[in-house]
Amino acid sequence: MESSWIQEITLHDGCSDTGKELWFQSFPHYTRQIRGEDNNASAVKVDVGIILDLETDVGKVMKISILLALADYHANASPSAIRIVPHFRDSKKDDVEAASAAIYLLKDVQVHAIFGPQMSTQTDFVIDLGNRVKVPIISPATSPLLSVKENPYFIRGALPSSCQTKAIATIVKNYNWREVVIIYEDSSYGTGIVPHLTDALLEIGTLVSYRSVISPIANDDQILRELYKLNTMQTRVFIVHLQPFLASRLFLKAKEAGMMRSGYAWLITDVLTSLLDLVDHSVIESSMQGVLGLKPYVPRSNELDNFTKRWRKRFRQEYPDMDQVELNVFGLWAYDSITSLAEAVEKVGTTAIPKLKKPDTRENLTDLHALGTSKVGSLLIDSMQNSVLKTGLSGDFRIVDGELQPSPYQIVNIIGKGERSIGFWTEKDGILYKLKMNGKTAKSRNKQLGAIIWPGESTIVPRGWDIPTSGKKLRVGVPVKGGLEQFIKVERDPKTQAVTATGFCADVFEEVIQSLPYAVPYEFIPFPIPDRLNLLDYDDLVHKVTSKDYDAVVGDVTILASRSEYVDFTLPFSESGISAVVPVRDDDRKNAWIFLKPLKSDLWITTGAFFIFIGFVVWVLEHRVNREFRGPKRKQVGMIFWFSFSTLVFAHRERVTSNLTRFVLIVWVFVVLVLTSSYTASLTSMLTLQQLQPTITDLNDLIKNGEYVGYQKGSFVKDVLKRMKFDSSKFRSYSTLEEYNDALSRGSKNGGVGAIVDELPYVRLFLKKYCRKYIMVGPTYKAAGFGFVRLSYSSDVSERAFPKGSPLVPDFSRAVLKVVEGELMSNIIQKWFGNETDCPEQDGMAITSDSLTLDSFKGLFLIAGVSAGSALLLFFFSFLYQNRDILATDDSIGKKLSAIAKVFDEERDNSNSKSESPEANESQTATLFAASEASPEYLPDLPLQSPEIRNSDGLGASPAAEGFSTTEPGTPVHETITGTVEERLDRALQEIVPR
């Protein structure tokens, strides 16, 4: 093995970045045989450059791993295989030294691959050199700023720091921390992770409240001042992305600043966790207890245990004067990278590898221009960009598109002198308590972390926020107005000038603050709402949040679409809507005309019209065939009205003979039944139930009557009334419930108003106090463009307004839900508004007219009209068909109509009596005889067995008879019965029926 400059290297970027397979590319610069160094003079020698910070422990760890990797490869290779010759150079923690070493290796040694450097700033320049000469550069630098995609000859030999950001975000989300502070190093190593970590946290709804940048050369006083600054803030969750030496100084000062006690949470990134053994044990025991750490997971194996023993032995041989340093993941990645490089070189071929192609010879060439171009670099890079090392010591060592693919991350808790594993994280499964490695598959045992000892030896999860020792409080604006103090009341102590707020809104706000998972200190700032019109109102109060005069607003502030354009609202905790309150009228039961109230006028008129229409239809259908519908014109007109209206009480006695008439009456009787039942129910309700009847039932009545309308001062209801076409000259504003009562009592004509329009919470509070005098009317209005939110709680529409995009909004909304769903809300409502059922006369529901309207019976009238009209049409078609001979004459239309009318007015030949069945005649006869027996004085001499009756045929017709006299002529009650049986029966019935 070639001896070379063995110098310590310093680690600038010790954090591992993306989890993609790292290829250590080493390209032989020329083929040469080394005699005296190797017994096999025919072996092909490949020169590989290695640039490390050999002044650092990490550089020394990687150097020993690289030497062992080459030894293992050569031991297992055939005698004629390629032999890799390493050329070590020390960058001495300096960018210029690293660049100089790379130029030397490429120009003088003509290496075909370079492993290193460690630091991101050094690697950036070396990558450019590799792209120029087409030599692969394999670097363990972890900064995401080094792009594999933009550098075709760059392969990352470690996980970039951006690979762990999702794991960090998952831990933060697991404990519901809403804000964090990132503490990072002011270098390419530190700044590279910040945008990736910020985006990962924003995806889970966590805000980076502050970014603390620590310079690598900062002294202890500067670090302490920065920590004191952090301690004045509310956030108590810190994510630390520093290298071991700087991190140890930070935690020492954090302990001194009192920031390692209960209530604080510290999370360190993977580089610091992986190199924790390089931190002084006294610092860990005194200042890092309870810290959470994240590092790439390295599965245990027999190969790893054997290699660790060999590594320790070789390290003691190389550095006998040093304290023992433990093997870390960077050493394992270096071993796997060199092994992958050796396999890639072997794939290219075992024949001689040509030297670098030199540029054309010219005068005054610089070192950069004198560099050649590798003829096999493209072959090697193609072989290494996508490869898998099945027996990697670091685990599943896979490189895809030049990036080392991520493995699971292990989450540890620093306790005592070291660390304790509490769980794992994988991109597929998230947080896991244990991993069961089955080949390449990680199976979850459960989804929770193990028990954690937090700073201050606390087992309670930090809330993430706390009251700062100094700093700004949440500035909360509260409205100050002259009335309705049940909702919000602001007072200022005359001595201390301290502002206090009481009322429903303030109590809910206090409970919400207590329900938050962190402490939020706040102070109330009064905002006056003047009594005069056209001055400051609630919109101006909300705008104070936009102008950053206030951080939040607490009070009876309604959620509106126009306001939500520039501020955010929490979830509502009360019902919302607009309704009107009007005075109650006197009891209608004393009204002499109350019997007309059950039906609206349009329903009365429609019902009367249908009674006449049905009577006319029945008359038309029965006129020609039923004697009861014949006679003088006055009798027929009276029959039309009498018959239809008698159906109202089902008192009609007239017989109907037409089937069409029966069909019409069946439908009409059903309609009458529904109408009478509805009328009876409505009238009964009016007469038996004591109701609070409003003076108006619709706000449109106020507009029609030109009455004044009142609203609460400073409320948005004024704009809603304008949208409803109210005249703004009819507006009057009030501040207290007493003013509402006085204005409604006086009315519009006496300097008051006809109605008060306000939001439901205020309306309910007003009705609770004056429930016997006023009532809520009409529907609850929702004006267009306004976002009212409705909840079933009798309280005000108060919300908390925050600046747009504030991270407090979702937390406050969740806290609002906790308060609303619990018993606290009921207690607060009872405290400020009492029991709403104290007034039995007022049920709080909007009142509308109790009279029945035509709309409720349109279907019934439609059915009745269609059935009656259909029957009438069928009758006329049948009548015209029977008299078609008249229509077929050559007479004029007038004569035809006159003839048709004359025929219609005549009684049909087979009319009532002839169409009756024998059974009907027998029934009539029996009835007549029964009547005579019961009342002999009517027909004392009527024979029980008259010849006419005995000889009547089945059709009810009998021969004409001259009649007969009774046995006692001259007696007044006696009369001669002449004519047919039918005529005599008719006359007898007329005598029986009372006159």
From TrEMBL:
Disulfide pairings: 771-839
Transmembrane as UniProt keyword: yes
Bilayer topology annotation: Multi-pass membrane protein
Molecular function as annotated in GO: ligand-gated monoatomic ion channel activity
Domain Ionotropic glutamate receptor C-terminal, first and last residues per copy: 473-835
Regions that span the bilayer: 603-621, 665-689, 860-881
InterPro entries tied to this protein: ANF_lig-bd_rcpt, GABAb_receptor_plant_PBP1, Glu/Gly-bd, Ionotropic_Glu_rcpt, Iontro_rcpt_C, Iontropic_Glu_rcpt_pln, Peripla_BP_I
Annotated region described as Disordered, given as residue ranges: 940-995
Key words of the record: Disulfide bond, Glycoprotein, Ion channel, Ion transport, Ligand-gated ion channel, Membrane, Receptor, Signal, Transmembrane, Transmembrane helix, Transport
Comp. bias (Basic and acidic residues): 981-995
Location of this chain's protein in the cell: Membrane
Alphabetical list of Pfam families matching this protein: ANF_receptor, Lig_chan, Lig_chan-Glu_bd
Source species, domain of life: Eukaryota
Function text: Glutamate-gated receptor that probably acts as a non-selective cation channel. May be involved in light-signal transduction and calcium homeostasis via the regulation of calcium influx into cells.
PANTHER family per the UniProt record, alphabetical: OS06G0188250 PROTEIN, OS09G0428600 PROTEIN
Complexes and interactors: May form heteromers.
Homology family: Belongs to the glutamate-gated ion channel (TC 1.A.10.1) family.
Name of the protein described by the UniProt record: Ionotropic glutamate receptor C-terminal domain-containing protein
Lineage: Eukaryota, Viridiplantae, Streptophyta, Embryophyta, Tracheophyta
